[in-house]
Specification:
alpha/beta, Rossmann fold, 9% strand
Length: 274
């Protein structure tokens, strides 16, 4: 017995891998799944719907047995951070392990497909936690890089997630890996989610947490008018440098905003970001 599974994060790379596998191995019975933290952007669900339309099958939603608020209390109201990624461990990895563990223990071989690109030699796949679980990296095997990912999504009619207009990564609404301009953009695009993030931060600080969502700066401090102006100036300068550096494409008069935002992406959580 064997199973083939592919996790969809809500980002471009895992979606492109799903497209790639559907196009190159249409007879492979792949199970597509999305681990829903309950704190995702609305644009993520819209993107999943478009992807399901191309795949012709549903993407299974895996829900954690305990929500973000439960785990926040378990971790003494300390916010997750790049140093302590309890959100990934409890809300992403744990539901997946619960989903596949019975079959693994029963002797089923499970192949997990992960969207690490050919232009990411520094990244490694998730370490297998069971002898019957094998992690495969098709993009690395077939030489698919970031432009190849965009070509796959555009060619399939899926396109890029809409949040790439203002954000360079997927993951939870208040992902601590997002950049400061992205927090400002969240405040404008989804003010209710931004206010929720502020409430979580306030509770954490009141309980002695050493972490805010961003290092050395609270969301209250970040959203003072003079601070917003500085962040936006820095962002505009970065984007101008990016546009000057990007080679012109004869097929396009201009580089879409979504693709420009992707040039700002930084290292993040493999499970959430891909």
């Amino acid at each position: 017995m064997e199973r083939h599974v592919l996790g969809i994060s809500g980002g471009k790379d895992s979606a492109a891998l799903a497209v790639f596998m559907r196009q190159t191995q249409p007879d492979l019975p792949i199970e597509y799944f999305f681990t829903d933290t309950g704190k995702e952007l609305p644009e993520v669900y819209d993107f999943l719907g478009r992807l399901e339309g191309f795949l012709g099958k549903p993407i299974l939603r895996l829900n954690p047995d305990r929500d973000f608020d439960f785990w926040l209390r378990e971790y003494n109201n300390f916010l997750p951070s790049a140093r302590t990624r309890w959100c990934t461990r409890q809300l992403k990895l744990r539901p997946f392990e619960h989903w596949v563990r019975p079959d693994l223990d029963a002797g089923t071989k499970i192949f997990s497909y992960v969207a690490i690109r050919a232009d990411e030699p520094h990244r490694e796949g998730l370490t297998s936690t069971h002898p019957n679980l094998e992690v495969l990296l098709p993009f690395r095997t077939h030489g698919v890089d970031k432009p190849g990912v965009i070509d796959l999504l555009e060619g399939a009619g899926v396109g890029l997630p809409d949040y790439y207009r203002w954000r360079s990564r997927s993951g939870c609404t208040f992902c601590f890996f997002q950049q400061k301009i992205e927090w400002i953009n969240l405040m404008r695009e989804h003010p209710e989610s931004f206010e929720e993030a502020k409430r979580y931060e306030k509770t954490a600080l009141e309980h002695g947490s050493p972490f805010t969502w961003c290092d050395n700066e609270s969301l209250d401090e970040m959203t003072r008018p003079e601070r917003i102006a500085t962040i936006e100036r820095d962002y505009a300068a970065r984007m101008a440098r990016l546009k000057a550096r990007i080679r012109p494409n004869a097929l396009r008069m201009d580089t879409p905003q979504q693709e420009l935002m992707l040039e700002l992406e930084t290292e993040g959580c493999l499970v959430c970001h891909k």
